[in-house]
Amino acid sequence: MSTVGETLKLLHPLVQKYLRKERMPHMACSGCGIGQVTHSVLLAIDELGLTPQNTVWVQGVGCSSRITYSTWVGDNVDAHHGRIFAVATGLKMARPDMNFILFTGDGDCGAIGGNHFIHACRRNLDVTAILFNNGIYGMTGGQVAPTSPVGAVTTTTPYGNIEDPFDMCQMAVAAGAAYVARWRSTDFKPLVASIKKGIQTKGLAFIEVLLQCPTNFGRYVLKTSSPQEVVKYIKEHSISQKDAGKLSREELAGKYLLGEFVYRPERKGIVERYQEFLKAHQKE
Ligand code: SF4
Q1: What domains are defined for the chain?
Q2: Cα(64) to centroid of ligand 1, in Å?
Q3: Mean pLDDT, to the nearest integer, of 222-235?
């Protein structure tokens, strides 16, 4: 058995640089896609030269939020379940000079926090939000989520889910986010590039990542505990927008489109408008 010291030596340099070593190993199940996404985010902020001094992590409640929860070496803020955008709005308005990275899950963002999410997009709040979409409630044991596919057997839909899932990206586009994209946890290069673009975008950047949850989605929906099988399922149920153009509407049913959906950095956001407002009314 290796000692903690030996384990720490094996940690990726990015983890050593940005995460609290004493909090390692993290809490995600083995084979989970959360580590891949976190790695992509750390690489993106490293390449952009962001530091713990100018970057604050904001996380909601759920599996999505457990890696940076108390492990990011800079400041991090835990919001109540679903309140991540409300908390981030206050933080960003008070400190427009800081970068805010938000980690949220499909339950946190699409269910209990759906209303906050829509209005943050409408206000075009200048933050980067990463949505970890595993298609199920992971941390609480496999309940149906607003992103679960039709027919999914979960602990709360033992005879199969009868509801259509939300398309969170289309919702973000319709509500007004400045940058919206979707990737899979295995799309390492485009995901890192997209996160960098999102951080550099003025306004709300919303990046959804489809990731494998072998523990609950695998177990209940696919009847497997194999991370590879869940990755395979995600690959079979997602397609680039270019390739999607070759398929009929029927062939596209149940598939997630991948890529960038909107980029409108010219759209003025609430932070900029608020600064202008303050300037204009300071004397009154
Ligand atoms: S329950 Fe699923 S999403 Fe949560 S840490 Fe485990 S594998 Fe990952």
Answers
A1: 13-281 (3.40.50.970)
A2: 8
A3: 97
